[in-house]
Amino acid sequence: AKFGKAGPPVAPPPDGAQAPPPPPKVEVVQEPKKDYEQTRIQVRLFNGSAMTQSFKVQEELAAVRLFVELNRTDGDQPFELMTTFPRKVFTEDDMQKPLNSLGLVPSAVLVLKKLQ
Fold first, then answer.
1. pLDDT tens digits for range 36-78
2. Where are the alpha helices (DSSP H) in 48-114?
3. How many angstroms separate the CA atoms of 63 and 69, rounded?
4. What is the distance between the alpha carbons of residues 16 and 7, in angstroms, rounded to a whole number?
5. DSSP per residue over 10-53, as a string?
6. 35, 79, 98, 104: which sits with the fewest CB atoms below 10 Å from its CB?
7. β-sheet bridge partners, residue 84
8. pTM for this entry
9. Structure letter (DSSP) for residue 58
10. What are phi and psi of 67, to 5 degrees?
């Protein structure tokens, strides 16, 4: 039947019983834990500018430090890397750890901190 025209009448269920309503459809969508291959790291320099680079999640934090040392535009003061939230200053031991084990995946902002 075309729009606006009635189709054939629908026969009522036998014995005058009401047909039970169909059960509501409940879709449980479980967000699969993504396996990221890369992470995007933004580094804020002492002069307020920022650099952004993608790294493989298995790379060590030392790769980020080296990237900063080779590409920074704010001088050559010694520095530590840190996150602001949650606040964490990365140590020399952390430099050997992969980025994904440090919670820097799928992206993170690191800030340069002057060495005390």
1. 999 999 999 999 999 999 999 999 999 999 999 999 999 999 9
2. 61-71
3. 10
4. 22
5. PPPPGGGPPPPPPPPP------PPP--SEEEEEEE-TTS-EEEE
6. 35
7. 87
8. 0.70
9. T
10. -55, -45
